[in-house]
Write a structure and sequence with these properties.
Blueprint: H1 15-28, E1 34-35, H2 47-59, H3 71-85, E2 94-97, H4 100-109, E3 117-122, H5 127-134, E4 138-143, H6 154-160, E5 165-171, H7 183-194, E6 200-204, H8 220-223, E7 231-236, E8 249-252, H9 255-266, H10 274-285, H11 289-310, E9 325-326, H12 347-358, E10 360-361, E11 363-364, E12 374-377, H13 382-397
Parallel strand pairs: 1-10, 3-4, 3-5, 5-6, 6-7
Antiparallel strand pairs: 2-8, 7-8, 9-12, 11-12
Helix pairs in contact: 2-10, 3-10, 4-5, 4-9, 6-7, 11-13
């Protein structure tokens, strides 16, 4: 009899975390490694946000708080949803968790029963299908191929819906592709969802403010108000505010769902860190201009990486609308052999050979549900990205 729970057999470790950990281990061992796996801005948390955390410490805000967020943070979140998305929530419709991942976990675990299906567009963030499986649900993967800009069509969504569909899990701009749905594209999807009132919508908007070239962000409950009563709109401070380690995520949605999520959280972590909550208040209520400044840096890096990768024979790299990832195809490299003798027969082998032979750490596409591709996070320095692209080009030039 195994000591470990059989529930663990339903999920796999996070490949993105594994790649980042491997890069750190190799660096610690003295290897020359450029890690492009972590989805984490390299900017420091803005000074006014850190100052708010220090002030909270000095005031003694170090005790337990309400399970799913202090009233001040919920008010700030209400203001953000109204200001940015035209969505009205009362305090009882808002949940704050220890990062967006916990909020997502709470929502799915609190609602899924065996046999329930969750539609997930691919490429997807690696944790989506794993959390669904953990909750006893079944991920239903709908591919949005490179020919469609990594976005799914209304027809594909319609075809995937069954009487067992519980959720449609949506993410724009996307991790891992950076693809963003236009208002018209999203409206076409919400028109499909209106025809299926048993399907709830979980919109992961974590990259809302990381966007380029005038791309207009929109979210499902904003585009189609009739979906408001069955949509959970999820966000957080990690990406836009360079606060990944602070671990604050939040969501707005129907009270019956928020109450269920609170019940689950009360028996897991209870409240998020009190100091981080006060920092998040300052983030949402304070000056926002630095976001555009950061995006200008990200755009420069995006353009550098896309140009350099598209110059490599065998690689095709679309231009993303947001986030800080590119998701190039290596279809033209499959079947070739590296200088080190590795036959590149899939993207996982490609990524493994790349780090072993060049020291560049990327995440293979199969982890995100669409191959043959790999993901690069360009949330690192221009110098590191330029050197990484040179090494990737040299590696590909050496294939035969």
């Amino acid at each position: 009899m195994s000591f470990l729970s059989a529930t663990l057999d339903r999920i796999a470790p996070s490949p993105t975390v594994a790649v980042t950990a491997l890069a750190r281990e190799l660096k610690a061992a003295g290897k020359d490694v450029i890690g492009l796996g972590a989805g984490e801005p390299d900017f420091d948390t803005p000074a006014h946000i850190k100052a708010a955390a220090k002030d909270a410490l000095d005031r003694g805000e170090t005790k337990y708080t309400a399970v799913d967020g202090i009233p001040e943070l919920k008010e700030a979140i209400r203001g953000k949803f109204k200001r940015d998305n035209g969505l009205d929530y009362d305090l009882g419709q808002i949940s704050v968790g220890t990062g967006g991942k916990q909020v997502l976990f709470n929502a799915l675990i609190a609602t899924l029963n065996p046999g329930d299906e969750v539609i997930i567009p691919a490429p997807y963030w690696v944790s989506y299908p794993e959390i669904v499986r953990f909750g006893g649900g079944t991920p239903v993967i709908v591919e949005g191929g490179i020919e469609h800009g990594f976005k799914i069509t209304p027809e594909a969504l319609e075809a995937a819906i069954t009487p067992r569909t519980k959720w449609f899990l949506f993410n724009s701009p996307s991790n891992p592709t950076g693809a963003g749905y236009t208002r018209a594209e999203l409206k076409a999807l919400t028109d499909v969802l209106l025809r299926h009132p048993h399907v709830w919508v979980l919109s992961d908007d974590i990259y809302e403010h990381v966007r380029y070239d005038g791309f207009e962000f929109c979210t499902p409950a904003e585009v189609e108000p009739q979906l408001y009563d069955r949509t959970l709109t999820l966000n957080g401070v990690s990406k836009s505010y360079a606060m990944t380690g602070w671990r604050i995520g939040y969501a707005g949605g129907p009270k019956v769902l928020i109450d269920a999520m609170r019940k689950l959280q009360s028996q897991s972590t209870t409240n998020p860190c009190s100091i981080a909550q006060w920092a998040a208040v300052a983030a949402l209520n304070g000056p926002q201009g630095f976001i555009d400044d950061n995006n200008a840096v990200f755009k420069r890096r995006r353009d550098l990486v896309v140009e350099r990768l598209n110059a490599i024979d065998g690689i095709t790299c679309p231009m993303p609308e947001g986030a800080f990832y590119v998701y190039p195809s290596i279809a033209g490299l499959i079947g070739k052999k590296s200088k080190g003798g590795t036959l590149i027969d899939n993207d996982e082998v490609f990524a493994k050979a790349l780090i072993e032979e060049t020291g560049v750490a990327v995440v293979f596409g199969a982890a995100f549900g669409l191959s043959p591709n790999f993901r690069i996070s360009y949330a690192t320095s221009d110098e590191a990205l330029a050197e990484a692209c040179t090494r990737i080009a040299d590696f590909c030039a050496g294939l035969s």
